[in-house]
Write a structure and sequence with these properties.
219 residues, alpha/beta, 37% helix
Length: 219
Amino acid sequence: MTHRAVVLLSGGLDSSTCLAWGIREGLECHALSFDYGQRQLQELNAARAIAKALGASSHRVLRFDLRAIGGSALTDDIEVPKHRTIGEIGQGIPITYVPARNTIFLSYALALAEVIGADRLLIGVNALDYSGYPDCRPEFIAAFESMANLGSRFVQTPEARLQILTPLIAMTKAEIVRLARSLGVPIELTFSCYDPSESGEPCGQCDACLLRAKGLEEA
């Protein structure tokens, strides 16, 4: 039996690796990206390129505006932190955290899963080499999975529960890079910067750029 999966695809290294992993595992992967008012819209171009390059069964881009809520350097007029050490990146919840973002993303993914008959959600959260985001923790994923199975049509078939797959959750960034390479992910097409230039070039100084560079160097 081939399982159908909704894959959250931002266009970054982690989500792109998740898509490639899902395809390797024999899942019928349907990519889902979001234009939510983020300042790094270049990532959507990367997501489109990655979905095509890896052979996603479909790719949707949903649009809504989290700038109306704000509260994050990615969706508000707040300066993106630069030049932080790896130790500083791992301390506390950074201002680049978008309130409830993964809750919202997974909710849309759940809705799509119900419509297309998918029983897997695939997300590239990471709880080891990450930047302090509370919605990347295993506890959050487990809680959302439980809620999803109680509050959707999956409640009618408890023997066929929805599963949220997080293959990268315990990996370092270097391990993710190695996995991406082994899966044939076109890393040069991925985009991970929080504060790109007007021409779309990564800043090389934000947390996302620094963690990416660290992973590539260590790999």
